[in-house]
């Protein structure tokens, strides 16, 4: 993949693959985060955790909410701060 995909392309990719996203945090630090939106990685939706509910994760077009596979929790980043997107080949849940 060359360049940064559009937001829609990124969301589509996240639903199919584990992706390493490099972005600038609001405090200026750079973060590299393996993440995904593959259903089998996500926890079951609950009423007490709104981030597990799909509609809540899709509220804004500026922020992308994802499942961070290393920290095993929902995280988000601003799409306009994404610097690099890489598909992680051969990624497994055991990593």
List keywords for this structure.
mainly beta; 2 helices; five-stranded antiparallel sheet; globular; 5 strands
Structure description:
The protein is mostly beta strands and about 100 residues long. The protein has one domain (about 5-85): SH3 type barrels. It has helices at about 5-15, 55, and strands at about 20-25, 30-35, 65-70, 75-80, 80-85. It has a five-stranded antiparallel beta sheet, covered by helices on one side. Strand 3 and strand 4 (about 75-80) form a beta hairpin. The longest helix has 8 residues, at about 5-15. The two termini are about 25 Å apart. The model has no long low-confidence stretch (mean pLDDT about 85).
Overall mean confidence score, pLDDT = 84
What is the CATH topology assignment?
SH3 type barrels
Radius of gyration: 13 Å
Structural class: mainly beta
| CATH class category label | Mainly Beta
Number of helices: 2
* Helicity level: 10-25%
Low-confidence stretches: none
Detail the topology: elements first, then pairings:
Blueprint: H1 7-14, E1 19-24, E2 30-36, H2 54-57, E3 63-68, E4 73-78, E5 82-87
In short:
The protein is mainly beta. The protein has helices spanning 7-14, 54-57, and strands at 19-24, 30-36, 63-68, 73-78, 82-87.
């Amino acid at each position: 993949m060359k360049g940064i995909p559009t937001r829609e392309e990124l969301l589509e990719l996240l639903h199919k693959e584990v992706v390493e996203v490099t972005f600038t945090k609001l405090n200026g630090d750079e973060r590299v985060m393996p993440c995904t939106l593959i259903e089998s990685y996500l926890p079951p939706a609950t009423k007490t955790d709104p981030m597990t509910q799909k509609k809540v994760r899709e509220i804004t077009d500026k922020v992308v909410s994802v499942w961070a596979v290393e920290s095993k929790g929902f995280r988000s980043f601003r799409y306009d701060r994404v610097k690099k997107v890489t598909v992680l080949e051969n990624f497994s849940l055991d990593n």
